[in-house]
Amino acid sequence: MSVASELARARAIAWKDLTAERRTKANFNAVLFFAALVLLLFGFALGPDNDALRGAAAGVLWLTVLFGGVLSFNRSYEMELEGGALEALLLYPGDRRALFLGKLLANLAFLLLVELVLVPLAAVLYDLPLFRPGPGLFGVIILGTLGFVTLGTFYAAMASRARAREVLLPLLLFPMLVPLLLAAVEATKALLARDLMGDAGSWIRLLVVFDVIFLVASFFAFEYVIEE
Amino acid sequence: MGTGFDAARVLRPRGLQFFGWFALLFFLASQAGGLLLTPPDRDMGHLQKIMYVHVPSAWMSLLAYAIVFGFGVMFLWKRDLKWDLMAAATAEAGIVFTGLALLTGSIWGRPTWGIWWTWDARLTSEAVLFIMYAGYLALRAMTDDEMRRARWSAAIAALGFLNTYIVYMSVRWWRTLHQIQSSPSTVDPQYVLFLRLNAFAFLFILIWFAASRYRVARLTRDIEESVEERALRPQTEGVHV
Lengths: 228, 241
Prior knowledge:
The complex is a heterodimer.
Chain A: H1 3-24, H2 26-46, H3 50-82, H4 85-91, H5 97-125, H6 135-159, H7 165-176, H8 178-192, H9 200-226
Helix pairs in contact in A: 1-5, 2-3, 2-5, 3-5, 3-6, 3-7, 3-8, 5-6, 6-7, 6-8, 6-9, 8-9
Chain B: H1 7-11, H2 14-37, H3 51-78, H4 81-113, H5 121-141, H6 146-174, H7 189-232
Helix pairs in contact in B: 2-7, 3-4, 3-6, 3-7, 4-5, 4-6, 4-7, 5-6
């Protein structure tokens, strides 16, 4: 199988997942409203002082993304398990890593769409200068989301087929995300404050390194996770 | 399995028993030496003695995770469940040392820094390591198929092992408030001998714990298999249930 045909398979799987989601929108709506609720609850817990809220906003935003996102990863495999479709997918010829790549792309698109609503909402609720940082902030959001979705897709392949999957996934996933959370929050914080200290760059580099390492590692380890 | 089951040998394995006593005595001797034969620290006084528990525990917590990773790789290579059971046994022993390192670190930090907890790189990555051990063991408990469990555990240990250093470095960039890493060159030579002896003592205890847990895991698995075998054996004399 050539690389091109594997990519075509990955794209087909991603497209299938996104089509299923587009037709029901059940998961999208649930995750989005849950995330909005978390933003509100953090506001109640930390507010109402505007300065305090603005100071905590970068951390709150990323935790909200983590809490919302973790709910959607298991779903991406449960969908297959309910109809016994995972076995069928595994029987198709070709590399199984295309399945991982496809799920990853679908989850990435899904979560970026959620963030498209969530980030402006956070900007309104926490009084953030969303357009001042420019394209750098969007880069940080995409890099952070990519790393999160990579590991989320990887661990959900196991957690969704184990018992107590609702609590198992965050227990496995979140400790792995500590470097990503630190880098994403610090970079976001720096960019929102016009990056006066000039330290956003090194955190963005850490994000890139983290993404590359775990994209490669989970891409190769996926074979052992999915094989039956 | 089955026919050649020697209860006396399995229930009282001489080698393991002997090694256990050796590890215990070595541990007691090294601890006693550290407590009684070294002078109290100039600044910290006798408080410094907790080093003989804290430092070796922290070393063992990392070493055990590396061993879990190594056994996981061996399983994926050889496909023998023996390696998976050994990895699990080491993880069970490893989480004990991780907890001990956290606990003793906290007890030491209170009188020294005036706080129970600080967001320093080594302390925080030790806490993350603790949760990673817990996640590893939780996944094992929540999976029934043993081949699947073995493959998944190996994958988790591999990614986790990769992450330990990244966690440590990222927290270090984030904030640093710890004293410089102790190495034999920054520790007064009179402490070095007993720190080393205690490191070996903890290593022996780690091996003994892991070996004992491995033995229990093997026995449990043998019993489960023989029960299964008996249940599946065809009924003779045309007995119908």
